[in-house]
Amino acid sequence: MMMPFSYDINPARIVFGPGSVSRVAQELGRLGVKRALVLSTPFQEADAQALADGLGALSAGVFAGAAMHTPVEVTNSAMAVFQAAGADGIVALGGGSTIGLGKAIAYRNQAPQVVVATTYAGSEVTPILGQTENGLKTTVKHPDILPEVVIYDPELTLALPVDMSVTSGLNAMAHAVEAVYAQNRNPVSTMMAVDGVRALRDALPVIVRDPANLAARSKALYGSWLCGTVLGTVGMALHHKLCHTLGGSFDLPHAQTHAIVLPHSIAYNARAASAELQPLADLFGGNIGTGLHEFARSIGAPMALKDLGLKENQLDQAADIAVRNPYWNPQPIERDAIRSLLQRAWAGALPA
Ligand code: NAD
Q1: Residue in 10, 21, 44 to alter for ligand 1 test, most ligand atoms within 8 A of Cβ
Q2: CATH pick for 13-157 out of 3.90.1150.30, 3.40.50.1970, 3.60.15.10, 3.60.20.10
């Protein structure tokens, strides 16, 4: 029997392919933007400047101050630059940090956004914004946050370092793995999730061996689009709650944390969601927990939370926070079981 479902599709225009960054001006024109502020992190400033130079009169300049977790002070500075430059639109060039800044501006002034996505994190296709103020991270969901146009140019990912490609790719997979057992899943979200994970499973080992392989880079970016899309359409569960706890309360880096925790959180949920996870387990040798663990190890991913600086004596507190206000989860959330999951992820042990 087909499960009953309702499905809200996020409107999005996707422009995909090598060289597609040259389409930014055309896409701004379609949106009616006359002067776009180009955003990036300090690290990608030269690329952002080159993009702005290529836009000529369509550019209102560059703001290269984007930072992890979208601090509100940075957004306020960018808003001031946006207004002073007479901008009426945004071009965000980068990963989740830069895209987060573009979303934060659009949430405040409804500016149209063209995103040129250069990592696999998936933020560019979600109406979700996480921002931090006074050390607290809060999340908002609103249609104004969703970028109008996303450009995926695999050539721009050739320089994404291998370690970041690996962790960012596993971050993308995490969205899709949780999507297959989401309460509000539907046949299309599951189809996208499984194909997204398959694409990343095939592409990441090639990228590790040959980072400049354009075919593998294209496949990984395609997979990350699918994985990001399901993140934007269905609910996430234990895995994302654990990563938000570790990132928000212990300042652990986003993508690496996802990469380490994923096999453990999914092994925890496999007991309750084995049928839903089966198509993914089949991609990793039959057992989703140990299969993901082996896959992550084989592509050189970080394996232990202790290597990210988390102290063993912080695990009790992490477990306490993670079980507070839990997200819906297929397997009941039990504090002692979560504590032992964290212990294994901390030590880099095999998932239970
Ligand atoms: P990031 O955007 O923080 O990028 C990390 C670093 O890599 C930056 O210095 C960046 O400039 C650089 N970089 C990016 N692409 C590059 C490339 N192709 N070549 C060379 N360097 C490159 O990393 P991320 O993992 O994409 O984003 C993490 C942030 O995104 C977190 O704050 C996370 O919470 C957020 N996020 C949000 C959502 C959402 O839906 N709201 C989804 C996923 C992630």
Answers
A1: 44
A2: 3.40.50.1970
